[in-house]
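Protein modeling request. Please complete all fields; requests missing the sequence field cannot be processed.
Requester role: graduate student
Desired output: 3D structure, token encoding
Chains: 1
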Amino acid sequence: MVLNSFYPHDIRVRKEAETLIEAGYQVFLLCYKRRSEKKAEVRDGIQIHRVFIGESKVSVGIWDVISSIFFYHPIVGRILKKFIKQHSIDLLHVHDLPLAGTVLRVGKRHDIPVILDLHENYPEALSVWFSWRKNALIRLKNYLFFNYKRWHNYEKYAVKQSDRVIAVVDEMKQKLISDHDLPSEKITVISNTESCKFKEQQLNLNVYDDISDGFVLLYAGYIGPHRGVDTVINAMKYLKRYPSIYFVIVGSASEDVMSYLKESAIRNGNEQNIIFKGFQPFDTFYSYMSQASVNVIPHKKNGHTDFTIPHKIYQSMMAGKPVLVSSCEPLKRTVTRYQCGEVFEADNPADCANKIERIYHDQKAAAKMGQMGQRATLEGHLNWEQTGKELLTLYESITPDNG
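Delivered output (403 residues):
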């Protein structure tokens, strides 16, 4: 596996690798290195080799530009070639578009099949991720090298050249077929479901001590412009007559994003009911989610969020509490089908507030929604124990011993 990030960082990579290892595969991971991390180690059963390309925003930005110009990363490519020979690699599995060109070029040279795992609609995501960035130089860099048209064309090349493609949701599969005339049988949907082991996280009953008597709306996870956290903050101004309703935000973001959100809370005059918890370890998420009143996934609706789905919707369902989601297609489809929450119109604070108020006033319905979410995940097929089987089927179809 080749990852354009650090590890441990991406839980999708961890889940896929662990499933493969349990099935008897030997998994190596080539990823980026922080100065404090070991160059090589075995973690979660994965044989990790880390590549240091710098740690400052400047050095990382320079390498981003270089690799986006040629869609080839010279350092990763050079090390990958050596890695293949050293470990007799049979299959390459690259996570997302940034390093796809590098892996495809090396894979072709060594006659090794390549799986391209698209975590999201990356070309559209680029348009969204940087929308709140204020630095003029960064905005210029993104306009020149990370624009939609350029990366959409690159996506077409990557999916055509890959031996197999993984999509996270059916909506993305259909988009790849429509946009790039890709045959359906080349694409496997491996969703971001959560393992039932998520419920085994140690329960901390004190995470909401400061608001123990409140009705808690929880957002947990990474925070960015497309996540819609600002929609809920703006919805809170419609709920001022309910002083017991709190919006708790667990997660980290860039300085620009956090400043924008905190300024929004102050501007609305209800900052005392909006609590920023900052980064929290993943092993606390079940404690936060299971003791919240409602878990909120308020994504903006766009070409990115309509073609992916976050891990946290399945985690929230497992936690047994109602889920409030925006009208992004995969979120809406899941919540509507399994009757586990409410859907509000994306980027509409008034409608968001209306749906919060509805749940607040009908605790019996809220409890039923929570039960339906748990049933779909813990008793149904919306868990990684089931999803992992699809990954194994894909691997069996492409690995050398199976033709």
